[in-house]
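Re: duplicated header lines in exported structure tokens

Our pipeline writes sequence and tokens for each protein into one text file. With two proteins the header for the second block appears twice in some exports. Here is an export where it did not happen, for reference. First protein block:
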Amino acid sequence: MKHIAALHNLVTPWSDGLEPSDAELDAIEWEMPLILAEVELVDARIAVLDRPATELDERRIRRARRKVLAVRRALTNRAAAAVSMPGGAA
């Protein structure tokens, strides 16, 4: 029986370019409240995929939807304030 071996390394070497930059990490941190609010909305929607939504489920979805909208508004206002300020600092 002949063994077939891979001609390249079994594990891809880690490239320095794969890590997020400081600017990308700052952007993720900036958007984290929105990400968490959207996850909450998705969780609420997933909960009712296999059954009819109860009144409590509907409230939970509405609350999560309102939270997403409120966080989007807050982030938009923060971004607008950062742009309008001298130097663009938030």
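Second protein block, exported in the same file:
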Amino acid sequence: MESSNQEQSSPAASAEPFEYPMEGLPELTLMTEFPDMGTPNQGLIDDEYEKRTGIAIRHLGGVPMQDNKFKYLLASGNMPDIFMNNWLQFPGGPEKAIEQGYILPLNDVIDRYAPNFKRMLEENPEIDKMVKTDSGIYYAFPFIRSEEGKVYGGPIVRKDWLDELGLPIPTTIDEWYVTLTAFKQKKGAKAPLTLRALFMGERTAGFAGAFGVMGNFYVKDGKVKYGYLEPEYREYLATMSKWYLEGLIDKDFAVLDLESVDYKMTSGASGATIGWNAYIEKYNLAAPYNDPAAHYTAAPYPTLREGEVPEFGQLDNAYAGTSSAAIKATTKNLEAAVRWLDYGYSEEGSLLNAFGIEDLTYTLENGQVVYTDLVTTNPDGLSSDQVMLQYAHQTNFPMIQRDSQLAWKFEETNEAVEVWRMTKHEDYLLPPITPTTEEVGELSTLMDGISEYVRDAELRIILGVDPIDAYDNMVEQLKLLGIERILEIKQAAYQRYVNR
């Protein structure tokens, strides 16, 4: 195992001269956090990466950190050389993963083998602040979202139904109520609004943002808040319960998977959902085969009063922790692992990750990227994003993401992000804080009980199992379960982050 005395070296030190490709074709193993990918076949982007870096990668599939399989993997000692995951979620935090001998502190190896990554840190102090612990330890090569990539989800609605019914795209809670009621009564929608539960607080504010809250942690006026405790959340739950009991929200929303939502949105069973911008493209592409009149578009996050700007919507931190690559503490190919990861932060690697292979998927004209016919009018009928999945990484990969400048087929998809971006969410975004090892242990113990309880209590109110008055009991129970202590810990961690 590499010694932890590497931690204190300065990232400004000069790296050793090096040129790609690396000699000897060393092989590394790699895993991600995405189990649905299975063990991917070697793709065209992988072949190109191997050719350029001189480093071979053997993919071993994926496992999320919260899965029991992750614990088994640690216990087995069969960690991959490179593990792309969210190390902020490691039990005890990333420094605990280092302390327990699973992953390497990277400060020293950045100096020795990662000149591109080191330069990026020096040129982007805000990113540098995000990707290290309070004590200054770098633990992973991060995936940093572009400005465009930080917003990618929100409400989606059947525009053809709105036009047929003479209704505008809904912008307020009252307009949404009118819209969903009309979808039910006049279009025969069995589930006017269908969505997965994760879009009601976990990944987006859903409709709660209209009430000035979100079902998660956020910062307001320098104080860490937990949206479920705020009195406005009671109003939101009362509204959702009313909608549910009137048959406006899918009766099965608590257990729906993506396939079920897709089916309902494309079969006429539903006319609205909350999802990612790619869903708009998917639904419009499917329309000729299901209902040629169907037309899907983005709707803004709602407000209570017309003309207001919603407080919350969907917004990721530039660094949210996901798809960030740690290196196994006992790897036998340390330099190869660092060189392979560092390539993604070079200009050449950045162009490859964003736009694919020059003269094959794009050309440069007066310094501007122009996609080739292989991408824009693919001879095999593939959509542009399907082509780029083969030739570029674009997202969820250790790199600084660049705006792809790739137009979707449907203008509604192209416009969606700007529609959803119109919120004040950035004012409340909690940065990627790193509680101490002791704090993480306490947080984990307390949050296990709270997360399960609050999901169940919220669901019972929305479904009408409990009356809205049960909200007051929910708040009291959260306090008994330790939510105030959690807020103290997160506040301290947030203050340390601000002072980095």
